[in-house]
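Postdoc handover notes: sequence design on the structure in folder B. Input tokens:
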């Protein structure tokens, strides 16, 4: 297994191009199953997760043309040959569960393994299944598989989510586009990836309005064609690099980052003493010599502070002056980075869903273990400002969601090397 060795890197200077968003690309790929003609995605992030999704689609009969290293992926689902997504393909990555809705809508039935829990919490899919039932699907769960059928097609429904779920909103949209009649989703998620999915589906002939607000209306259509769609810039990758630049100081331009998707982070960074300039083609992050001050953050659905940036912001707060309280409100177990950051000398006390971070004047390098994607990158950020060498083990998590991380940070002066012998 690979590991990263990271040395204190000094102020980062330069330009980082932001990739297409992993969490959007995965749902857009699932959307290809709805299309009778090819769906072509550009700005596709080359990641372990997106490559894995491509494999699952191929196993269902989708012809995927995505040469190694290319950012253009063509998916042709003219002939779906299987409607079964087995345990081995779903357990490794939860987003693969999202093929259920499109298969159900297009073919009328599907059998997809339940995704199970993961490191950050139990993560049930009850809201997804209730949405399909509201659209008239029969659902049974047998031997760890969801067997769903709507042999006479799905019907439009009025669905009021009891709480906000990104995945359930997207999955309900993916099914409702081919349902008979209108579906109204209330208390829907407003994350930018929802808008990206709606724009792509509309380009394929769907009729979706209200995305980006809590009420989404979907007028079902008989079939979807195909389209060419550019995957939205990854706000979490951009936010991560913004935090890394804030931590090391310096001057970094994040090319393609969208300020409108990162409002809560930009506010928090400015409060912490970081200069964030919104430029026509991206964001510039600057901190020249000034200190960082502690800021409290509470994770919330968009436009609140994203849970996917909580670990990275905690790493920043480890070296800020004062005490910051970080509350995690989305997932029940998303502080696994706290003990690892403490190994680098951070002063963090976790109580339930709250982490109290007392800033320290310096961190010190140590061997640490990555536990999930965002936790892993928070350790990289801390390591960039720690004295001495840090090794981050088990970095396969990083490869699931960050494209060429060490190269992108390295071009701005970060001293990161990868080697292949970690336990
Ligand atoms: C998406 O997960 C993202 N994953 C997550 O990113 C992100 O952290 C999360 O949204 C919140 O923004 C992908 O897009 C692939 P949810 P998702 O449904 O859709 C509970 C990363 O690091 N819930 O909004 O699974 C759930 O357990 C990943 O890239 C139910 O109880 O998140 C959680 O507590 C991690 N029942 C809360 O809702 C359901 O049926 C919000 O989860 C669905 C969700």
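Designed sequence:
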């Amino acid at each position: 297994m690979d590991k990263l060795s990271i040395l204190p890197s000094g102020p980062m200077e330069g330009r980082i191009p932001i990739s297409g968003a992993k969490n959007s690309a995965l749902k857009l790929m699932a959307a290809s199953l709805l299309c009778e003609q090819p769906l072509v995605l550009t700005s596709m992030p080359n990641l372990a997760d997106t490559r894995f999704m491509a494999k699952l689609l191929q196993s269902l009969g989708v012809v995927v043309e995505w040469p190694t290293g290319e950012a253009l992926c063509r998916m042709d689902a003219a002939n779906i040959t299987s409607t079964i997504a087995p345990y081995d393909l779903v357990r490794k990555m939860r987003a693969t569960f999202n093929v259920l809705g499109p298969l159900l809508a297009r073919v009328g039935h599907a059998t997809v393994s339940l995704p199970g829990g993961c490191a950050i919490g139990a993560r049930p899919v009850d809201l997804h299944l209730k949405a399909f039932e509201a659209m008239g699907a029969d659902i049974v769960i047998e031997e760890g598989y969801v067997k769903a059928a709507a042999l006479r097609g799905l019907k439009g429904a009025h669905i009021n989510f009891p709480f906000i779920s990104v995945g359930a909103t997207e999955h309900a949209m993916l099914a409702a586009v081919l349902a008979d009649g209108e579906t109204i989703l209330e208390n829907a998620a407003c994350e930018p990836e929802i808008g990206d999915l709606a724009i792509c589906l509309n380009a394929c002939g769907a009729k979706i309005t209200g995305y980006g607000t809590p009420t989404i209306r979907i007028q079902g259509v008989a079939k979807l064609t195909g389209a060419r769609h550019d995957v939205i810039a990854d706000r979490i990758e951009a936010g991560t690099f913004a935090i890394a630049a804030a931590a090391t100081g310096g001057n970094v331009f994040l090319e393609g980052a969208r300020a409108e998707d990162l409002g809560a982070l930009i506010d928090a960074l400015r409060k912490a003493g970081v200069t964030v300039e919104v430029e026509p083609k991206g964001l510039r992050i600057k901190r020249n010599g000034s200190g960082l001050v502690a800021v409290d953050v509470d994770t919330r659905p968009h436009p609140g502070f994203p849970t996917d940036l909580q670990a990275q912001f905690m790493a920043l707060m480890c070296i800020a002056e004062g005490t910051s309280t970080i509350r995690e409100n989305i997932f029940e177990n998303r502080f696994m980075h706290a003990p690892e950051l403490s190994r680098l000398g951070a002063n963090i006390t976790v109580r339930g869903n709250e982490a109290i971070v007392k800033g320290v004047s310096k961190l010190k390098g140590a061997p640490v273990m990555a536990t999930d994607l965002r936790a892993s990158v928070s350790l990289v950020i801390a390591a960039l400002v720690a004295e001495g060498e840090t090794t981050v083990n088990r970095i396969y998590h990083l490869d699931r969601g960050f494209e060429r991380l060490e190269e992108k940070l390295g071009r701005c002066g970060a001293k990161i090397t990868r080697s292949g012998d970690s336990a």
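Context for whoever picks this up: The longest strand covers residues 12-17. Don't rerun without checking with the PI first.
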